[in-house]
């Protein structure tokens, strides 16, 4: 019996290569995944980590052992893998550990049409099958073929965004030695955009900085280069290039909530009155602007499986998370940082002002950013914070995802437990920096008491 409890996460499989994740385990996962989703084939892509080709080959062995064919798409970003799943109408597996350090690897799985496979939508069944042994298949083995999807992926993305007539732009792109270095050139090659590349060499050891743009330390080189060359914007991709962070021409980060509001506005212009998904830690500017544009804002929990499920239920055209995941109905409801980046460049290039000026209209509030606190007992600390605010005059409390408290002056905070670490994650927003800071400090005083 194999114990996968340490590597099966909420949305994917992830672990240290050799210690937790090896070819034998991955081969069994491939066979179990095939039992779950069926045929006729499974598409497989992988990132630039040294272990990725070997693990992908082991997974392919597991798939073909069940009589199902494999279509290799080779080196890919995660959103390129989603494109392959949608375009070919096949279940698919992506080998990546996203922004995790080099010793990690993992598998992101989806059904045909890029439908997510998470803990509640197939991962637990895969874990159960592997734990107790995947039944042997006695028929003919499946076959393995290769298919280059990079050009079709690039063309498809450009066709989803109105880029005709944009003015010439200079954009610094930091790929962090991740898959953006593979996908940015073909996507941008036909656009009037001069790309200034940073760390485009594919290197799964991440020699320059972690491929995690959520950490401000990993944006420093990009910010400096944007200022140095006088670029119109900067883009930073994570390791598997499914998330994109934006820097304005001054070298300042643009909030992913503001990007969500911008893209939502553009999508609503194409389909007035449509629904837009936002998770509960995005800025209030998102539902406000969606409503002002005649759209229907729909609030959901954090996490791609919740976003995609709600998009399917509501027919929403777009969804955004404050973690810089952006979901598009016309991209099989999957997330694509590259597609969001193209929307930003289309909006910027369609007018004469700077990106900072453009984004000012999508930034109305002061936000704390996510603040992590290590605690001994998540539940006890959550209850302490809830009790501290429960009797505050006019306070509204909900527990859709963690604890959200909204005060009468419009300020609010959300406190959520980490699924994998003894952490509580705090996000605070208010009408001005002073009010935000006071509320942040008040919550932290209770939380860390």
Automatic annotation (TrEMBL):
Its cofactor is Mg(2+). Keywords: Isomerase, Magnesium, Metal-binding, Phosphoprotein. InterPro entries: A-D-PHexomutase_a/b/a-I (IPR005844), A-D-PHexomutase_a/b/a-I/II/III (IPR016055), A-D-PHexomutase_a/b/a-II (IPR005845), A-D-PHexomutase_a/b/a-III (IPR005846), A-D-PHexomutase_C (IPR005843), A-D-PHexomutase_C_sf (IPR036900), Alpha-D-phosphohexomutase_SF (IPR005841). Residues 370-445 form the Alpha-D-phosphohexomutase C-terminal domain. Residues 8-130, 153-251, 258-365 form the Alpha-D-phosphohexomutase alpha/beta/alpha domain. The keyword Isomerase applies. The keyword Glycoprotein does not apply. It comes from the Bacteria. One of its GO terms (biological process) is carbohydrate metabolic process. Its EC number is 5.4.2.8. GO terms for molecular function: metal ion binding; phosphomannomutase activity. Signal peptide: none annotated. Belongs to the phosphohexose mutase family. PANTHER family: PHOSPHOMANNOMUTASE. This is Phosphomannomutase.
């Amino acid at each position: 019996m194999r114990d996968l409890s340490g590597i099966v996460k909420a949305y994917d499989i992830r672990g240290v290569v050799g210690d937790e994740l090896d070819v034998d385990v991955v081969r069994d996962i491939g066979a179990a995944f095939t039992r779950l989703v069926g045929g006729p084939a499974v598409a497989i892509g992988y990132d630039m980590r040294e272990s990725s080709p070997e693990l992908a080959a082991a997974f392919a062995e597991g798939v073909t052992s069940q009589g199902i064919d494999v279509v290799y798409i080779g080196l890919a970003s995660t959103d390129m893998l989603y494109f392959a799943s949608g375009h070919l109408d096949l279940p698919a597996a992506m080998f990546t550990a996203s922004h995790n350090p080099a010793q990690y690897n993992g598998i992101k799985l989806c059904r045909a049409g890029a439908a997510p496979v998470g803990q509640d939508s197939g991962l637990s069944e895969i874990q159960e099958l592997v734990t107790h042994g995947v039944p042997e298949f006695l028929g003919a083995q499946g076959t393995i073929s290769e298919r280059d999807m990079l050009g079709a992926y690039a063309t498809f993305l450009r066709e989803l965004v109105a880029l005709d007539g944009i003015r010439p732009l200079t954009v610094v792109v930091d790929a962090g030695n991740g898959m953006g270095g593979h996908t940015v050139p073909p996507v941008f090659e036909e656009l009037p955009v001069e790309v200034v590349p940073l760390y485009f060499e594919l290197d799964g050891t991440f020699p320059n900085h972690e491929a995690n743009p959520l950490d401000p330390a990993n944006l420093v080189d990009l910010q400096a280069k944007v200022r140095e060359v006088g670029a119109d914007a900067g883009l930073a991709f994570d390791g598997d290039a499914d998330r994109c962070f934006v820097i304005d021409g001054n070298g300042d980060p643009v909030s992913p909530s503001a990007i969500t509001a911008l893209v939502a506005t553009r999508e609503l212009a194409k389909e007035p009155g449509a629904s837009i998904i936002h998770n509960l830690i995005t800025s209030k500017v998102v539902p406000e602007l969606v409503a002002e544009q005649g759209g229907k804002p729909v609030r959901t929990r954090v996490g791609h499986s919740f976003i995609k499920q709600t998009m399917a239920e509501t027919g929403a055209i777009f969804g955004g998370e404050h973690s810089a995941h952006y979901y598009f109905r016309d991209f099989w409801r999957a997330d694509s940082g590259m597609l969001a980046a193209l929307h930003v460049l289309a909006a910027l290039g369609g007018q004469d002002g700077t990106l900072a000026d453009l984004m000012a209209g999508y930034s109305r509030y002061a936000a704390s950013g996510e603040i992590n606190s290590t605690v001994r007992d998540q539940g006890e600390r959550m209850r302490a914070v809830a009790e501290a605010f429960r009797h505050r005059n006019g306070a509204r409390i909900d527990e859709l995802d963690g604890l959200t408290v909204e005060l009468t002056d419009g300020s609010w905070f959300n406190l959520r437990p980490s699924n994998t670490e003894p952490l509580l994650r705090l996000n605070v927003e208010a009408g001005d920096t002073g009010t935000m800071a006071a509320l942040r400090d008040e919550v932290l005083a209770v939380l860390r008491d």
